[in-house]
């Protein structure tokens, strides 16, 4: 029997809160997107959340305040979306709310998302499930990436190799190969460094279509110094975040550089870094001849898509649209699905992906 679930994702790009409502049918492994909405983060809330991604003073109070502001915005989004879809709160079994990651340190035993789930349950009148990463981390896993389990559930094909690549702030891959267990990991930065550099030099939040990067030329020694970072040669399970790949990381590479490069060439180098680390991660798993399907905002970066296709010339590189899944809503749908797993007492993680000791039911439930 299908049931209706809402998924809310606020990713590492901090561009907005994505909300999707989906009809999920576990008997037939199907997911139908009924509607979706993206609420841009007001600049003040974006700044508050970004500030919380690094150590600072009075963090507990600031995190509580920002979490509540986030929940109020998310609740408004849920109400608008349900109205547009002609649905009532009572039609929705659960909301799966990822919240906003402000620290991800599986090596220290925690991954912290904020988003005032109790308030969200109170404001929406719908059962809210959140804190999806902690249980996996407690079981020795990375707590990330979690979407590979959803990709496997919805998109695996017994006859074809499929690689799903989510390019948001960070990029993660899911490798679905007939007869092999699912592999998945974060390959490294997706858009996060490109966004930061673009904002600094052009005042724009991102480089639309990769047009600016396409006018520059990657700087080989700078690219080499970036690719030498030990994260890229580590094998999975592995996950990363703003704690590691951030403006300070970029600054350190630029400081060690003998001349002042052109800003546009740095942008081209950062795009190349994203493309090459994704391509290398796919190649490590011998996916030549398979299909790559891209989701997340990176699917709109035409130049990045072109570079990926050039680097992986034996594979076809397309957006997940080709599989019938809108690339903008894949992650929000994944959190709707993770909530459906939790409420039915079924595991949400893939131990082979996250490194957890075993399958675990993920999430904390705030009953309506
Ligand atoms: N038209 C476009 N051209 C180029 N890049 C784009 C375009 N639209 C969106 N993006 C990129 O996609 C990003 C947002 O992607 P997305 O919403 O998938 O990220 P996220 O969910 O925040 O990240 P994560 O998956 O890491 O949590 C933007 O910050 C921008 O870099
Ligand atoms: C800790 C955290 O929020 N990680 C995000 C981030 O954004 C992409 C990548 O890094 C992935 O590991 C994860 O998100 C997706 C939704 C995931 O867990 O699959």
TrEMBL record:
Class of enzymatic activity (EC top level): transferase
Record bears the keyword Nucleotide-binding: yes
Annotated pathway: Cell wall biogenesis; peptidoglycan recycling; Amino-sugar metabolism; 1,6-anhydro-N-acetylmuramate degradation
Any one GO molecular function term: phosphotransferase activity, alcohol group as acceptor
E.C. code: 2.7.1.170
Protein family membership: Belongs to the anhydro-N-acetylmuramic acid kinase family.
Name under which the protein is recorded: Anhydro-N-acetylmuramic acid kinase
């Amino acid at each position: 029997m299908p049931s209706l679930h809402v998924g809310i994702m606020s990713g590492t790009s901090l561009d907005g809160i994505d909300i999707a409502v989906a009809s999920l049918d576990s008997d037939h492994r199907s997911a139908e997107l009924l509607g979706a909405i993206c609420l841009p983060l007001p600049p003040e809330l974006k700044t508050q959340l970004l500030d919380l991604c690094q150590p600072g003073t009075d963090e507990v109070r600031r995190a509580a305040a920002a979490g509540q502001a986030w929940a109020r915005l998310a609740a408004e989004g849920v109400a608008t979306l349900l109205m547009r879809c002609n649905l009532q709160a009572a039609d929705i079994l659960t909301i799966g709310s990822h919240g906003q990651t402000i620290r991800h340190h599986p090596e220290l035993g925690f991954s912290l998302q904020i988003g005032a789930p109790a308030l969200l349950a109170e404001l929406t009148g719908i059962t809210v499930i959140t804190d999806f990463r902690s249980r996996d981390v407690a079981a020795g896993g990375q707590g990330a990436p979690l979407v590979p389990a959803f990709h496997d559930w919805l998109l695996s094909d017994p006859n074809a190799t499929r690689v799903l690549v989510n390019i948001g702030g960070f990029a993660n891959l899911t490798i679905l190969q007939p007869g092999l267990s699912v592999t998945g990991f974060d390959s490294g930065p997706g858009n996060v460094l490109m966004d930061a550099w673009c904002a600094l030099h052009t005042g724009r939040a991102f480089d639309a279509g990769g047009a600016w990067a396409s006018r520059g030329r990657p700087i080989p020694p700078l690219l080499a110094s970036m690719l030498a970072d030990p994260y890229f040669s580590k094998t999975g399970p592995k996950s990363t975040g703003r704690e590691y790949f951030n403006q300070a990381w970029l600054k350190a590479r630029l400081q060690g550089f003998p001349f002042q490069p052109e800003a546009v060439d740095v942008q081209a180098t950062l795009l190349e870094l994203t493309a090459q680390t994704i391509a290398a991660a796919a190649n490590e798993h011998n996916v030549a001849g398979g299909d790559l399907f891209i989701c997340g905002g990176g699917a709109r970066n035409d130049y990045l898509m072109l570079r990926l296709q050039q680097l992986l010339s034996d594979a076809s590189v397309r957006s997940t649209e080709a599989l019938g899944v809108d690339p903008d809503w894949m992650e929000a749908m994944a959190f709707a699905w993770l909530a459906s797993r939790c409420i039915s007492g079924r595991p949400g993680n893939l131990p082979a992906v996250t490194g957890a000791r075993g399958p675990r039911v993920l999430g904390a439930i705030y009953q309506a």
